[in-house]
Amino acid sequence: MLKALKVGLVIERANRRNLVALIAVAMIVFGFMFYIKAQAVGNQLIEKKGDYYSTQAILSKFQVKDASETGDGSDIFKNLTKQKSKIALQIATLTMDRQSMYYESSLQLAELRQEAFQLEGYHDIAELLPSKLQNSMDYLYFKWMNDAGRDTITDLFQYIPFLLFFFSYVGAGWYIFISFQTSSILLDDFEHSSLIQGFPVRFDSYILSKCMISLLTILTSFLLIFICASPLWIVHGLGNPLDPVGIYVGDAVLISSVQYIAMSLGYMFVISIFVMLLSIILNVLLKNMYLTLFVHFILFFLPMIFPSLISVFPYNPFNFMNFNDILRGVPVDLAQPVDITMNLGLIILFICIILMLFAIKTFFSTGKIK
Q1: 3-class secondary structure for the chain?
Q2: Of the listed ranges 44-53, 256-265, 320-329, 360-369, the one predicted with least confidence
Q3: CA 102 to mean position of chain CA atoms
Q4: Separation of alpha carbons 271 and 173, rounded Å
Q5: What is the mean pLDDT of the chain?
């Protein structure tokens, strides 16, 4: 085993792909910073103005002469009118820098939307408003902030809020990133077999050493994310690590920002192992990097292109590769809702990892590399 590790380290030391991968991670982190700045992400005032105009557009669809509480408008129209009023109050409190009043009005808005779900005519405008699950998360979040008496707005340029934002979206590309990094995990060595000739290493030991070296690169990528974001800590401060974030685990619940970041790292690590083992199997079977990537992409993008496949094959491990969508409860809001969680996803991924390890050990351990 030690011989296999030494051979692998000698080979990987000259592999530029690892350096390119680390540079790509750094560029992605800095790219997120630029995106937040350029698009004013997290600017609640801009976002609420968008909500106000959206609600106004919905109300314009109703033919109502008297918009008062005792007027001729339907219950859903009156509810939307109240929502518009609360959004206007949100804009006013943000403009006056009264964050505590902002959280109070946001909680009231979430309560109004909860009432709207039960009213006649809601389904005609449902696509224009937050889903029931999203509103439940908003309600829990604003109730927590209101009960805690918070009087500050989250700044995404602080260290913890930035990391939370980063890990809230990185799931969409992590599978692709690891696919590129591991697509030729064995092929490079096979093409330069002279590097490993003379070392009586069993193939399964060789595979294990390659996995350990790849995981070391992945852990380095994790560390690099935190290092690249550290200037935000110095310039803008740490932020509150206990700020809540809503996730779906069968029901809408709140966890702290640090818990979400740690959970994301755990999911990313398990997904990395899954992708790496799949790449090994595809390398042995297809003996071509581009075919390996093609299979990866097909398996990853199919559930996104055809969401109905998620309801047909709910236990497909590739449904869980974009773990951020699962944590947001996106499958629950599909045209054909599917109640799947990342707890289920972890069980399925672990089963798949065990099966792939068994397949590699049983069918690919054909002797020694000489």
Answers
A1: CHHHHHHHHHHHHCCHHHHHHHHHHHHHHHHHHHHHHHHCCCCHHHHHHHHHHHHHHHHCCCCCCCCCCCCCCCHHHHHHHHHHHHHHHHHHHHHCCCHHHHHHHHHHHHHHHHHHCCCCCHHHCHHHCCCHHHHHHHHHHHHHHHHCCCCCCCCCCCHHHHHHHHHCCCHHHHHHHHHHHHCCCCHHHHHCHHHCCCCCEEHHHHHHHHHHHHHHHHHHHHHHHHHHHHHHHHHHCCCCCCCEEEEECCCEEEEEHHHHHHHHHHHHHHHHHHHHHHHHHHHHHHCCHHHHHHHHHHHHHHHHHCCHHHHHCCCCHHHHCCHHHHHHCHHHHCCCCCCCCHHHHHHHHHHHHHHHHHHHHHHCCCCEEC
A2: 360-369
A3: 27
A4: 12
A5: 86
Could you tell me the two tokens for 49? Answer: 């103005």
Residue with tokens 């109905």: 308
Task: Please give the Cα distance from 145 to 260 (Å, whole number).
Answer: 17
Q: Which two tokens stand for residue 149?
A: 């008496």
Task: Give the other-Cβ count within 10 Å of 127's Cβ.
Answer: 7
Q: Alpha-carbon distance 86 to 92, whole Å?
A: 10
Identify the CA nearest to 3 among candidates 195, 205, 139. 205
Query: Region 32-53: what's the mean pLDDT?
Result: 88
Per residue in 129-159, pLDDT (tens digit) is 889 999 999 999 999 999 988 888 888 999 9
- Specify the pLDDT at position 334: 84
Of 49-63, 65-79, 268-282, the one with minimum mean pLDDT is 65-79
Q: Residue 331: what residue type?
A: P
Report the predicted TM-score, pTM, of the whole model to 2 decimal places: 0.90
